[in-house]
Specification:
The structure is a homodimer.
Chain A (H helix, E strand, L loop, with lengths): L15 H8 L3 H8 L7 H14 L5 H8 L4 E6 L5 H16 L3 E6 L7 H12 L3 E5 L7 E2 L6 E4 L5 E2 L3 E4 L3 H14 L6 E4 L5 H16 L8 E2 L4 H12 L6 E4 L2 H13 L9 E3 L16 E3 L2 H17 L14 E3 L18
Parallel strand pairs in A: 1-2, 1-3, 3-5, 4-6, 5-7, 8-9, 8-10, 10-11
Antiparallel strand pairs in A: 12-13
The structure holds a DNA duplex.
Chain lengths: ~350, ~350
DNA sequence: GTGAAAGCGCTAACAG
DNA sequence: CTGTTAGCGCTTTCAC
């Protein structure tokens, strides 16, 4: 009897029919129970669950995705660095995605990767995702991908062109502004900026915030020094800034650079905060324990991720509705010992 | 005429039949081309590709997974922290997974999460993955999950019980041993250890390596101080250790703690490295720029991830074969300024 | 409240 | 080298 021999000797992994048979219901009812659909009597529900439990049944997500056309997953494109900022954001995104009931797929773009964001997005599309998060992108010129799922860009990128792309700021500009104002409030005439690499939108945001703070008070805007986020680049910048006696306050675009900067300043005999005040950005774990403890602003990664995901999920599940209004992320300045009043206070003028 | 009206007004997204029709071949041939199967003439291949391109065709991974029984994805369970070590490992894993031709799905277990690793693994199983990587697990007691896919535990965990579970060390014990020996070689009679939380296997490995180095030279083993990876805990430990004049060398289980420790030591008037030498672990980005620049050991995250993935992919694709032999990850000690000879050298004895 | 039938878009197995 | 025939395990649609 050569009747329906299964394609392989698939021994195990029960399917919903098996559960149905055991529970004495139809396969469709099992499906209803597992999807929390209404109109299933409590009793049937219980029987189905018991049967499923006994068999060790697990919904097959591939079959579900095929039949429903939805994967219940979102993909995230990250930069592939373990830098504190991007890594923290990624963790926040994971949590937000899971809380929203989706699965997370991750693809990195390494800086300098020829395929870049486009390649990463393509790969996500190949995998099948219901939505895409682009985290802290860098400027690769205009990126235009034919995407039919909603995309949210966390950290400003007017350069991503897609039918359903939304941009959600991470509030870095505001944070940068607060950092700069802190220095100004202390009595510094102006504030220098040690910027991040300007290919990163995150770095541009911070620069914008710094610039806005200065402009709002009519202060002169010193030349920007650009680093690459690393402490080494901060150190190099520090050697350069140390030579300029006009420098009394510096806002660094991240804590790593701030730490390198402080070291160079100290080596050059310009004590922090006695001669130069420094504010960092991120509040990395060691910020409170370096010498001197670093004044910095903390980024609300979790809040940003949640907010972004709220928008994305909305776009996925209610495509016909308008996007809900965005909430501003909280701002937190952490004042420690790397900032102080300028040594020789004069009445703060508008010029030196 | 109410003939075959599609279930929705599915407008677009071409399927392989559409490509086949356009290319003038059978659907199966399209499948062959997209799977790089042999025995397709170059000409047909070209025509199919052209047709696919024209239509903007993309293989449907859900259908593929359903039909083939393989998802071509691996899941990773991480701890959900942005700590430098775990975050770096995750980035390494992403790269290794992608290089191996798989997609990556990520689920975090937050420490203290009731569901823990078990819950994370279940969630991955629900999503459907061909293999699972458990990254830097912590001890939650014996974890036994009914898993039918291969599992690799990166960072030693005899507590994970599954039919096809492999453990791949990250070499932390060896690195810890090298760090300790560096201090001993400098002439310190013994080395104290500022350990990580012992629920983490990563912390235990380091402790083991430290212990082994001491034992190999017959040195006394001082009481261990345990921190929680944070600089704050390192600081607390530092206050405690500063009070003990017998402490001349400390091996800290990560750089963050080492930095907190150094600060506490300095505040207590015990200069580093004049009075106390300190070695860290990880080589975080700022390690070279704190005061004093930190001697530390660098973890070979990429190598560990690659090695682990090699084993996992082998287990997935050649389940019948034995696992290939493991390669040892490289060891790299970075000597900077936080370590020196003990101040008053006596002939190194075996006891005080 | 529940069930039967008809696919979702692909790969497996085998025939040519 | 290429095509045909069956499903993979679920959701959808519609009937009861």
């Amino acid at each position: 009897m050569t009747q329906s021999v299964p394609r392989s000797e698939r021994a195990s992994t029960p399917r919903s029919v098996d559960v149905a048979r055991l529970a004495g219901v139809s396969q469709k009812t099992v499906s209803r129970v597992f999807n929390d659909e209404p109109y299933v009597s409590a009793d049937v529900r219980r029987r189905v669950m018991a049967a499923a439990d006994e068999l060790g049944y697990r919904l097959n997500s591939a079959a579900r995705a095929l039949a429903s056309g939805r994967t219940r997953s979102v993909g995230v494109v990250t930069l592939g660095t373990a830098l504190y900022g991007p890594a923290s954001l990624l963790m926040g995104i994971e949590r937000a995605v899971r809380d929203a009931g989706y699965a997370l797929r991750v693809v990195n773009t390494l800086e300098g990767d020829p395929a870049g964001v486009t390649g990463a997005v393509e790969s996500l599309l190949d995998q099948g995702v219901d939505g895409i998060v682009i985290s802290e992108p860098i400027d690769e010129g205009a990126v235009a991908v034919q995407v039919d799922v909603p995309v949210i860009v966390l950290g400003a990128s007017p350069s991503f062109v897609a039918p359903r792309a939304v941009t959600a700021g991470v509030g870095a500009d505001l944070l940068a502004r607060v950092a700069t104002e802190h220095l100004l409030d202390l009595g510094h005439e102006t504030v220098h900026h040690l910027a991040g690499p300007q290919r990163w939108f995150a770095a541009r945001d911070r620069l914008d915030g710094w610039r806005a703070a200065l402009a709002a008070r009519g202060r002169r805007e010193p030349a920007v020094v650009e680093g690459d986020w690393s402490a080494a680049s901060g150190y190099a910048a520090g050697r350069q800034l140390a030579a300029d006696p006009g420098v009394t306050a510096v806002f660094a675009a991240n804590d790593d650079m701030a730490i390198g900067l402080i070291r160079a300043l100290a080596e050059a005999g310009r004590g922090v905060p006695e001669e130069v005040s420094v504010v960092g950005f991120d509040d990395i774990p060691v910020a409170a324990f370096v010498t001197p403890p670093l004044t910095t602003v903390r980024q609300p990664f979790d809040a940003v991720a949640q907010e972004g995901l709220r928008l994305l999920v909305h776009a996925i599940e209610k495509p016909e509705q308008d996007l809900p209004p965005a909430n501003d992320p909280p701002v937190e300045l952490v004042v420690r010992a790397s900032t102080a009043q300028p040594r020789s206070r004069t009445i703060p003028g508008r010029d030196r």
